[in-house]
């Protein structure tokens, strides 16, 4: 804290600057009990609000102090709740300590120790009895002794009952009477008495501590590089969800939060090392908003990330594109008269109804924005338009739907209807989009846009409460609006509370469109003077904050007490007097205290029923009649987050019946347990959008002007400020600071401007002469500068950079930067065109594909038909040939019969037979010729043998199909298909994406070249500027210019040194060195093959050194001396001079050379070592092999004589140990000392 606290001093010119104090004073006190003597271990840390700067004493900048609260909290909670000793001790007894400090196994045992509450209730009963006794004498008016007001009537023996105001006064007295000073009797630590109280209440603590051991939480030292990277990504993602820019301190808080989320345990140094590792890795993912060295202050919000920059750039581009179109407003006299619109409301209605792509309506609190939207809705119904209202919250959507009566829903529901999803479990890509038919991360399948959410050119899309819309939502909404052509209007108040995440959307929209309307006529308040004051409060600045706070005092609106308890009780009494009061707090803790106080008063007054619900999120009971608030949207029930209801009935099993005066709702028991709490008071975020009769702002440090503006514009009749302060001056100062404070996120550009203002207020470094060492360093840097300059001026077109005036060079840099921006815009537009062309090409290709499929089907059908026909023709031809063959067979048979000499009667008819035989022979020859000709014709026509036709069915079909392919019916279809394919290849719509892709590539190359050249140009400008500086300033400038190159060189050598052959080995080695700082070498254990899973991953079988004596997994170990080196972290490197970094790099190179020598020696010894022999022979051979190597320890004799059998239990039955494992995959072993020596031990 002392290093990070700052004091804001007033300079002579009226400006302020920050300086670091020279002396800070603290007071610390540890208490073990509450004032009632109950166990309550806590520590008070009091900071004296005066610090010394030089010889003077100044007040601390309170905004810086409160900004450090999260740092202190995160470090404290991580260290305490992650203490390894405490967690292990509790786990041994079956207890767990989560990272919120809760012990779930103890249940509600802590409720036993609530003597303070019991004492107040008992004293309250006594005071009520005393009051009744004092007012029981005859019929008379009973007046309050302080105010003189009549509070009751007594007479005829009846007993008067105190009214609500009297009960409140009596409770305040009871609280004061029971408040005890610290003393010996209530500060003693008596564990025996406390355990007796627990046993009397039914809690058996020894039995609860006698459970089975709980699963231990992971140790911080076991987290590897991948786990650190994941945590770093998650830390940056958590920051970018909520902030456009953040500080190094906020990054540190996020890192500690990630440590707690992992559940890591360890010592304070181990947890700190893990958190710093995550912070440093996360810092590499960030970019700086300013190069000024003063921006590196831990509290300066100078960091952002590329995702934030890209989101806001695209947001600006889309808003600018919509804001270009601006037409004249129509005159809607009839509508204005019908709705009695004031000038601002009428202008807003006409601006929205003219239908330009973008409009912004700013309305002060109570200016009638809802009434204005009713008129817009009426216009849409009469003119065929459609009004759709989207709100950031479900509560606002329900209110808008009831009051306007049109299509209304949350902004997230609208985006989900168009496929957008937000996955909180994915830190790198939380926003993504699904297409129809795809399944999202919740397992739901996207079915397309429902009709009620469908937008078009005739849709007026109004975002109500747009000031609470974050940039990610706004960008997704603009993409949807651009796709559908919807007309977008942002309605809200930029001076009220902004988005919970990255905001400033309305401010950006106002910059890019002329359709901006300001509604300044306030209609909500009965007092017109107060209405005018709210306008002044809305236009607050740090300059007028003191006057605005003074006006609150002048109007009698500020009341203060000297303790928080008294303030809370006063707020509760005021609510009892006016139950229509909206109570706004700064924190949830304040709201819980007020809720409890009001509930107690209502219970004492008998206003609440006996039925109650014991389970709720803030640990309090709910009674029938209580005001409750829901804390989660539930569309099935129909309730929204932060809605308030009155409890009408309670049933432990079925849940709770609530109502809001219009309808009733049944809340299931599970929902009540998880998402219902008392709702008499809420934070200002819960109060925004509410209108009531009265309003109270419970002030606390840390509030902003937006909190004050929202809280003090809720009540129509009266608005008051209640606060804890030491007096009027203290209260006035606190209110002044709050009104002047603006803590809402308004985008990256606003963050950069705020950073610039803060830098201007920081103290400049004191100039001094250079010493000899600095002069030597400056000489080296000047030489480096000249080499750098020579390298940048390579090329004829660059030589002019060395001579042209610096303003012209800077102007050229700006021009080239704008050119790069224009190229980036062109690339983005062309990518959009590419996406459009790609989708169009896909549609056209699908059309071609469908047409080709139809032709293909038609061709296939024609081919099948022709094949069948030709098969029939082929069969007919074959049968004709077959008939000819059969005829030939008949003729041949007849010829053979007539020429057969053995036939009886042959000789008797020889003369006639010869004639007949000659005729038969002639017929056989002719039939043979006809058969042969027909067969040749068949085979020539069908390209298939006569015999194959009968025997080969597949060949027959193939032949017919081949002939069918040549038929006109099929060839015509084939030609049509080829023509269609040729047409597809030449279609410009299909080839358009490739042309656009090539053009995008060309533009991308040009863009990269412009960026590279401009970076060199900027470097030259920096060099020339540095040359004009004096020695001190030039040294600082050149150090900043040279440092990145020096760090890169250091990291390069460090990477070579740490990687080795296997990165895993050297990473383990680094961690081992952190645990054993005196260890200066590395070990080569010889391991069995089955300790490796053949994926280069080592699987150790032992965890502790003593475990090795029971195992035979590790046989030998040798310690090789290597040069030790110190690994510098990123923060150290950033604070070092380039010369110091170069010196560290030289040491790394020396270590690398020594390690390379040793590794070569190890490798050679490994190759020389014998293999596959028994251990005794191996020891002897290995001893001889290693003994010839210089610098090696003679360790084998010691292993053989004293350790081998003891550690391994080796005997002849043990298997032979082989030396086949790679030594560089093994983990280092423990050693008693550095340098040479034998060592053994467990793997890391």
From TrEMBL:
<dbReference type="InterPro" id="IPR027417">
    <property type="entry name" value="P-loop_NTPase"/>
</dbReference>
<dbReference type="Pfam" id="PF08751">
    <property type="entry name" value="TrwC"/>
</dbReference>
<feature type="coiled-coil region">
    <location>
        <begin position="806"/>
        <end position="858"/>
    </location>
</feature>
<dbReference type="InterPro" id="IPR014862">
    <property type="entry name" value="TrwC"/>
</dbReference>
<dbReference type="Pfam" id="PF13604">
    <property type="entry name" value="AAA_30"/>
</dbReference>
<feature type="domain" description="TrwC relaxase">
    <location>
        <begin position="6"/>
        <end position="199"/>
    </location>
</feature>
<keyword id="KW-0175">Coiled coil</keyword>
<protein>
    <submittedName>
        <fullName>TrwC relaxase</fullName>
    </submittedName>
</protein>
């Amino acid at each position: 804290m002392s290093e990070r606290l700052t004091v804001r001093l007033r300079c002579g010119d009226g400006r302020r600057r920050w300086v670091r104090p020279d002396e800070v004073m603290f007071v610390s006190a540890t208490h073990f009990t509450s004032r009632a003597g109950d166990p309550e271990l806590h520590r008070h840390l009091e900071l004296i609000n005066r610090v010394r700067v030089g010889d003077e004493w100044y007040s601390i900048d309170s905004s810086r102090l409160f900004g450090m609260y999260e740092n202190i909290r995160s470090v404290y909670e991580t260290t305490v709740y992650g203490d390894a000793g405490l967690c292990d001790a509790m786990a041994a007894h079956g207890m767990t300590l989560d990272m919120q400090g809760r012990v779930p196994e103890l249940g509600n045992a802590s409720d036993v120790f609530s003597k303070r509450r019991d004492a107040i209730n008992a004293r309250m009963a006594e005071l009520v009895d005393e009051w009744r006794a004092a007012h029981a004498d005859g019929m008379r008016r009973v007046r309050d002794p302080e105010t003189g007001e009549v509070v009751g009537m007594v007479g005829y023996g009846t007993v008067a009952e105190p009214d609500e105001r009297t009960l409140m006064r009596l409770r305040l007295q009871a609280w004061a009477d029971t408040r005890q000073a610290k003393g010996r009797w209530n500060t003693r630590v008596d564990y025996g008495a406390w355990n007796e109280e627990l046993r009397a209440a039914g809690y058996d603590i020894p039995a609860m501590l006698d459970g089975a051991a709980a699963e231990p939480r992971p140790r911080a030292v076991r987290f590897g590089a991948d786990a650190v990277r994941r945590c770093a990504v998650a830390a940056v993602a958590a920051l970018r969800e909520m902030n456009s820019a953040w500080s190094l301190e906020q990054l540190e808080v996020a890192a500690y939060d990630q440590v707690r989320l992992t559940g890591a345990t360890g010592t304070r140094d181990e947890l700190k090392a893990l958190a710093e590792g995550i912070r440093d890795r996360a810092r590499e993912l960030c970019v700086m908003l300013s190069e000024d060295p003063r921006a590196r202050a831990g509290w300066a919000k100078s960091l952002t990330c590329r995702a934030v920059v890209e989101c806001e750039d695209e947001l600006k581009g889309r808003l600018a594109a919509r804001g270009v179109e601006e037409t004249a407003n129509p005159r809607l006299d009839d509508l204005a008269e019908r709705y009695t619109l004031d000038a601002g409301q009428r202008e807003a209605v006409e601006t929205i109804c003219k239908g330009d792509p973008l409009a912004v309506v700013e309305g002060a609190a109570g200016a009638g924005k809802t009434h204005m939207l009713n008129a817009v809705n009426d216009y849409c119904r009469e003119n065929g338009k459609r009004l759709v209202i989207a709100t950031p919250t479900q509560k606002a959507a329900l209110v808008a739907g009831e009051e306007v009566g049109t299509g209304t829903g949350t902004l997230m529901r609208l985006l989900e209807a168009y496929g957008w999803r937000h996955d909180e479990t994915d830190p790198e890509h939380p926003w993504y989009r699904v297409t129809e038919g795809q399944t999202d991360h919740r397992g739901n399948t996207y079915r397309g846009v429902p009709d009620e959410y469908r937008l078009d050119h005739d849709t007026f899309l109004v975002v109500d409460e747009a000031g609470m819309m974050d940039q990610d939502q706004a960008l997704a909404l603009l993409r949807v609006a651009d796709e559908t052509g919807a007309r977008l209007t942002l309605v809200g108040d930029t001076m009220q509370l902004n988005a919970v995440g990255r905001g400033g959307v309305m401010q950006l929209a106002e910059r890019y469109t002329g359709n901006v309307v300001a509604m300044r006529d306030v209609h909500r308040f009965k007092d017109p003077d107060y209405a005018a004051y709210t306008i002044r409060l809305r236009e607050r600045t740090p300059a007028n904050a003191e006057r605005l706070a003074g006006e609150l005092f002048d109007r009698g609106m500020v009341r203060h007490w000297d303790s928080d308890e008294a303030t809370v009780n006063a707020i509760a009494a005021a609510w009892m007097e006016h139950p229509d009061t909206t109570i706004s707090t700064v924190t949830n803790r304040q709201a819980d205290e007020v809720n409890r106080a009001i509930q107690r008063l209502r219970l004492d007054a008998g206003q609440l029923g006996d039925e109650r619900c014991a389970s709720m999120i803030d640990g309090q009971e709910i009674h029938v009649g209580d005001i409750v608030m829901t804390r989660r949207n539930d569309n099935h029930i129909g309730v929204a987050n932060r809605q308030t209801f009155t409890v009408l009935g309670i049933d432990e099993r079925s849940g709770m019946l609530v109502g809001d005066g219009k309808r009733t709702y049944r809340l299931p028991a599970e929902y009540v347990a998880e998402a219902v709490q008392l709702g008499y008071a809420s934070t200002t975020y819960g109060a925004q959008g509410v209108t009531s009769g009265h309003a109270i702002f419970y002030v606390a440090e840390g509030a902003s002007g937006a909190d004050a503006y929202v809280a003090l514009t809720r009540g129509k009749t009266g608005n008051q400020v209640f606060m804890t302060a030491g007096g009027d001056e203290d209260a006035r100062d606190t209110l002044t600071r709050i009104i002047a404070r603006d803590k809402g996120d308004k985008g990256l550009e606003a963050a950069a401007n705020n950073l610039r203002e803060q830098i201007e207020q920081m103290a400049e470094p004191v100039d001094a002469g250079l010493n000899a060492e600095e002069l030597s360093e400056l000489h080296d840097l000047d030489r480096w500068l000249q080499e750098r300059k020579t390298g940048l001026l390579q090329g004829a077109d660059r030589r002019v950079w060395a001579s042209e005036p610096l303003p012209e060079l800077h102007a050229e840099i700006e021009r080239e930067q704008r050119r790069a921006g224009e190229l980036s815009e062109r690339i983005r537009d062309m990518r959009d065109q590419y996406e459009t062309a790609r989708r169009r090409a896909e549609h056209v290709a699908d059309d071609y594909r469908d047409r080709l499929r139809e032709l293909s089907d038609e061709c296939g059908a024609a081919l099948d038909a022709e094949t069948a026909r030709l098969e029939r023709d082929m069969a007919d031809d074959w049968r004709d040939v077959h008939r000819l063959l059969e005829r030939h067979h008949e003729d041949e048979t007849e010829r053979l019969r007539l020429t057969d000499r053995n036939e009886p009667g042959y000789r008797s008819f020889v003369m006639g037979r010869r004639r007949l035989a000659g005729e038969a022979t002639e017929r056989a020859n002719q039939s043979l010729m006809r058969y042969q000709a027909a067969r040749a014709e068949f085979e020539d026509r069908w390209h298939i043998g006569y015999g194959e036709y009968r025997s080969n069915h597949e060949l027959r079909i193939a032949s017919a199909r081949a002939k069918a392919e040549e038929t006109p019916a099929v060839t015509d279809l084939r030609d049509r298909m080829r023509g269609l394919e040729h047409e597809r290849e030449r279609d410009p719509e299909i080839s358009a994406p490739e042309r656009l892709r090539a053009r995008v590539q060309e533009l991308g190359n040009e863009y990269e070249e412009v960026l590279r050249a401009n970076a060199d140009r900027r470097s030259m400008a920096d060099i020339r500027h540095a040359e004009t500086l004096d020695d001190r300033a030039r040294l600082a400038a050149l150090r900043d210019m040279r440092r990145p190159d020096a760090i890169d060189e250091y990291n390069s050598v460090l990477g070579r040194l740490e990687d080795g052959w296997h990165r895993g080995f050297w990473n383990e080695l680094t961690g081992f060195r952190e645990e054993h700082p005196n260890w200066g070498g590395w070990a080569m254990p010889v391991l069995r093959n089955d300790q490796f899973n053949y994926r280069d991953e080592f699987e150790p079988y032992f965890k502790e050194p003593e475990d090795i004596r029971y195992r035979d997994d590790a046989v030998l170990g040798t310690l090789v001396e290597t040069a030790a080196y110190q690994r510098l972290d990123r923060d150290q490197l950033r604070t070092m001079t380039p010369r110091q970094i170069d010196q560290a790099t030289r040491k790394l190179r020396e270590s690398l050379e020594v390690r390379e020598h040793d590794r070569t020696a190890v490798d050679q010894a490994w190759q020389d070592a014998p293999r596959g022999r028994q251990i005794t022979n191996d020891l002897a051979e290995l001893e001889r092999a290693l003994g010839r190597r210089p610098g090696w320890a003679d360790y084998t004799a010691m292993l053989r004589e004293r350790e081998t059998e003891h550690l391994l239990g080796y005997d002849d039955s043990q298997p032979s140990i082989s030396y086949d494992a790679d030594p560089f995959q093994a983990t280092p072993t423990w050693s008693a000392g550095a340098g040479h020596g034998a060592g053994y031990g467990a793997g890391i």
